[in-house]
Amino acid sequence: MGKVVTLTVEGLTVGYNGYPVVRNVCFSVKGPALVQILGPNGAGKTTLLRGILGLLKPIEGRVLVDYVDVTGKPEKSSRYFGYVPQLVMSPNTMYPITAWELLESTYMLYRRRWPRLFPEESAKRRIMEVLEAVGLPRDKWYRTFWKLSGGERQRVLIAQALINDPPILLMDEPLSAIDPPGRVEIAKLIRCLKSTKLILVTSHDPTLLLDYTDYIILINRERFRMGRPDQILVADIAEEFYGGVVKYVKEHLHIYDSHT
Ligand SMILES: Nc1ncnc2c1ncn2[C@@H]1O[C@H](COP(=O)(O)OP(=O)(O)O)[C@@H](O)[C@H]1O
Ligand SMILES: [Mg+2]
Fold it and tell me: Which residues approach ligand 1 with their CB closer than 6 A?
């Protein structure tokens, strides 16, 4: 079983240039568990994740991991968090680097920070472990990252987030930039990781992971609500956050918010 960990977010207000995007976010959650963060495009999901990580210094509030204050300190929070940023295809990020090299460089960055925890002789074994954990076929390990499929790239980014064996994973739309069959496979991987980690995953379609979801956070700018899926995915609450794009499909609630 995974390590028990508690993430506490107290009155977190995060934004840009002093202007808040999300306000006064408060929750506490104990892992291993899966939390889905849902909200329409522009709601502030990415901003919230960056605020929790400390990549954006919060305007107000605190972030505590096991009661250690990591607010606004990515160098401190990176011991506890693995971050899977949203996968975006951009000419600026199409490095000619293989999956293996990407993980090797990530390991070396941790090694620079914590040399004793990340000895050089363990690098190879650790990279193999995480690539196997995410199910990237061996023949893809030495391929250029940007020549991999969307699902394979997502696996590499998840492997990268696992390299320091963090108790908490923050994943930003890991199911969005891949084709539907690949999406199901990544959802299976997230389900598997959930048994050992506290996972916070942003999404605009909660259905794929719904059966494994312990809590749902609905967020839209200053609005915030958290609860068990059956408490949150009810029409009146979802409509409050998504406006008119919510409808019932049979007895299930479907949110058809379209993302770019
Ligand atoms: N780098 C930035 N500088 C200024 N404002 C930003 C920046 N990134 C995002 N925002 C603002 O924050 C809002 C929330 O964005 P984001 O957190 O990316 O939403 P989501 O991830 O839910 O789609 C956006 O509508 C935008 O106005
Ligand atoms: Mg986002």
Answer: 16, 21, 39, 41-47
